[in-house]
Records
---
Amino acid sequence: MIGSYSIPYGKTRLIFTLPAGALDVQVIAPAAVPAAPDPPGVVRAALDDLLGGLRWDDFAGARSAAVAVNDKTRPVPHEHLLPPLLERLENLGLAPDRITLIVATGTHPPMPPAEFPQILPANVLARYPVFCHDCDDAANLIYGGQTPRGTPVWINRRYAEAGLRLVVGNIEPHQFMGFSGGVKSAAIGLAGRETINRNHALMMHENAQLGRYDGNPAREDVEDIGRLVGVHVALNAVLNRDKQIVRALAGDPLAMMRAGIPLVNELATVPVDAPFDLVIAAPGGHPKDINLYQSQKALAHAALITRPGGTIILAAACPEGTDSQKYERWMLDGVESYQAVFERFAREGFQIGSHKAYQIARDAATRRVLLVSDMPPDLVRKLLLIPAALDEAINMALADLPPGARVGVLPAANATVPLPAF
């Protein structure tokens, strides 16, 4: 018997078959939940009922506002979230030219204005000033103090100096922050490189885990950065596996996270009772597989449920390649084995860029990783991964599997929390 499966790949899908009768095949995916029938109405309802005791009247005296919006690597439904929010800000008496949107890139390459239409509606671009953050632009950073964990807070000057500071995004699982969302869009997305580097170094802590919020030092540090910056209001969406709005929440950032995380867990968490011999994983299609830097998250999620010595097939289009010159240069500078990655990373200390090499090596050193992508095969090999077409990768993996082997299919790996119960 042959089983047919489909996974997202870029802006399309890949279809493959498995001999289901000879294998124990399981699909691990977020719960199938219908989209909200009226997304703008859901957003307006959230804005009508701010969490954490906030009221819009509290901000009536603000003379300017800045809104952190996510860049092209995040599937944020700005077309539904922003218009109702911007209307509220204008109702406070703020003129459109006093409401600034800042694209929160973190350490990602800044987006040129020509790319803004990829993430922002035309009517928003026509009415409000939009800027892109650059974590290395020292002249546009301002110091905001130090967190209890010693992270120096350098934040975008335009954002810090606005009278009312807001964030817009999604609450989703995150491989070491536990969850994205809340103040993170500003605390990391609009921070300086030194701030992001010091915060992300906390990913090495044992409690910096996928799906862990309380007691997660990386996420707690983000909340501390947000408090120092003074993020007033967060508006976040909870999306289904088709990237459609299910719920929207707004208000005090911490209260919003507390309300949203149980909703995300209900959608995303899938118990797994035994490890798999083979996992076929896709980050979730565009934009989650826009580059290898983002697609690595799917590998981390897949590794949680793949036995040591097993195989992971990562199907990620990566039309923009690695999208990290620092990571690429680091890997091409004489790093020829995963052991060499570990040794050099330990010798040089944590740095954004090389941390991606470490994350991949952590999971690929004990599992075979086959990468199905649009990246040049020679580059993939230099990154210590095995390039292959999907059918070729599946045939390579099946050749090593015994009858009855366990195979997991993770079609939306970045948005799935596979919970090992073994």
Note: The mean pLDDT is 96.
---
Amino acid sequence: MARTNYSFEKRQRELAKKKKKEEKREQKEAARRSKLDSVEPPPASDDLPVN
């Protein structure tokens, strides 16, 4: 009977965790970018009325 390769299983778990963490980071980055894009920039100083 074949023996279980624990190091292979451990490496696969580590890779899965790393992939999940990277996907979560990308989702947060995308949400942050969309939030910044939806905020309108303040008017330029040239557009302000002169008193």
Note: Residues 43 and 49 are 11 Å apart (CA to CA).
---
Amino acid sequence: MIPCKTKGFICGMVAAMTYGMNPLFALPLYKEGLNADSVLFYRYGLAIVFLGLLMKWKGESFKLKKNEVLPLIIAGLIFSSSSLLLFLSYNYMDAGIASTILFVYPVLVALIMMICFHERVSFVVWGGIALALCGISFLTKGTDGAMLSWVGLAFVLLSSLSYAVYIVGVNQSVLKNISNMRLTFYALLFGFSIYLVRLDFGTALIPVHTFSGWANVIALALLPTVVSLICTTIAIHNIGSTPTAILGALEPVTALFFGVMLFNEQLTPRILLGIVLVLTAVTLIVVEKPVTERLRHILKHS
């Protein structure tokens, strides 16, 4: 019998590492001639089927309240936009760097909460924001010292911002009371409409012709989507949100590993420094609030 905390840490690592496998399965599909819309059409479509079957097997309810439908549609469109922008960025920059820049979404969450909800920002968070900006500046140049594509950089930053808006929106609306699995199912379902429209309701969909292509499509729907979701839910339940978020640092590390080992992406000392700064910044911001609240609790009861 695996102890709950051990199970939580293992699931947290699996969740982050499987999500970091997005480029592992997406880039070979690009080489087969598929575009971002087609890849995500297959990914979302199959993930909806897999997740729906899983919910049915677990007895999870599909019912929605009237006041949940519109927020879910908006959340799904934002969630799907984040995926599309990330996958488009792969056409302009190394997937490992894109995944690292995407990981600054907790920094953007902190900024949104400060600007829109007047949440107080501590010196630690400001320091994390400064470190993240510094790290991104190191990542904006390629291995030859030339600036990365501004289009690619804009895509991945907008992807990170979209995901940050999605997280804030979910936690500041009626959606915070919906189970994680049902929320993701409907986010995928409503988000799927973006690719349906962009592909002229399927008429512009690029077909997959090879066995390896279908293997990549199925793996993309299962590992970075369904498996990552389930493991994230288990991890949060057993060890809490903060340790799970910290373990999320394995996501860009995994993407970088496969990028360097399989897709000949370069890892220079400057890029490595930028990655370390971004991961450090995000970790500072993730742990700051729980630590602050714990200290306040101790002082209050001392």
Note: Confidence is low (pLDDT under 50) at residues 294-302.
---
Amino acid sequence: MLEFERSGLIEEACGVVGVVGHPEAASIAYLALHALQHRGQESVGIAAADGLRLRAVRRMGKVSEAISKDDLAGLPGRLAAGHVRYATAGESSLRNAQPLTVQLKFGSVAIAHNGNITNASTIRRELEARGSIFHTDVDTEVIAHLIARSEADSLDGALAEALRPLEGAYSLVVLSADAAYAVRDPRGVRPLSIGRLGDAWMIASETCALDLVRASWERDVEPGEMLRFGSDGTMLSSFPFEKRAPKPCIFELIYFARPDSVVFGRGVYETRVKMGERLARESAVEADCVIPVPDSGVPAAIGFARASRIPYELGLIRSHYVGRTFIEPTGSIRDFGVKLKLNPVRRLLEGKRVIIIDDSIVRGTTCKKLVTLVREAGAAEVHFRVASPPTMWPCYYGIDTPSRDQLIAANHELDAIREFIQADSLAYLSLEGLRDATGSQPGSAASDASFCEACLTGHYPAGIIESADRREAY
């Protein structure tokens, strides 16, 4: 899935990190956020605590561009929390950047949130009716107000009390002056891992953030688990929420997580290779080469080529120096956006029967441009294969997806999609094949699956948000 197809449609969940017990906690958080940059590029924030005081810096932009050495120098302490954000629907502004910092009866608290609370709008209206004043558009502020209203005599108790009425998805890192908390919602929709860096603890949305700073992965935060990390190195675990059937997000494995991460106990790269292998067995076609849509289609294309014994080639070369915006000539170069991002290897493709592999199709407009690009490079045939089932429903749990009328697979049969993208053939990975590749439970019903497959099946395990009430996903 290419960046210009995802724009305004499907985007990454945000990323959170935590560091406890390291003398350069803020700097370690900064490095970890670099590894999570794919999960959000609009804003970045880091909060740090030294046992007495909590300080925070929030900036618009990417990690390396937004956070300076002076910023890090102003964040002393052995505890830190960080956040990279992608805003899905509301205002993209500094006031909505995280970690959100608030002053409570327990002292200063910073909250970094990945996910989306489906009943946040309802709770927000109730809180506003009782006098609460909100300063941001983010669901995270609902959590802060619920903590503030709690009558519990400790932050541990207030945090648990605040989270109990929430529906939807949340993976949280919460920082006080002398402790940090890691929490996952009872269904465990969004990922959250724990690692060790010497004597220090680390918390991160993905294990690639641990790898960057040479921290060892210990385990995932369990669905419904709340962990308290003390500044003295202690870790206390509790399960203060009603037990629910775990439903981690399948799209983390299909697309969002970095291939070098371990998510939900599964190696992302290996899982995507298996998806490609299964796709090859389900939709074989005679061809001369298999090429990926870089970079997201690479592991599945390797698996497809391996299983089909058709040579794997880098038929599309991606430019890594194109930002989200660029100056486009008016009408002078057809399909300029695709051409700027990708260039076909003409000598490799000329006269060949080519299979293009990608992770998913959203609107189909970019797929159509890619097929045209490969044909113009001289391909004799172009076949398109998708390493996931059709995306047919919007997500309400922390991923930005469009309404159904913008999803091509929700409104057109397979042959109509093939005709639209102008491919010689088109096939998706079956739901059964996806479940087999990801190790999901067998069964035909969506409710039988180990993962949340709502974007594929329309079965929502944690409720939905009405379109008029949709806020932002973090």
Note: The chain has 18 helices and 21 strands.
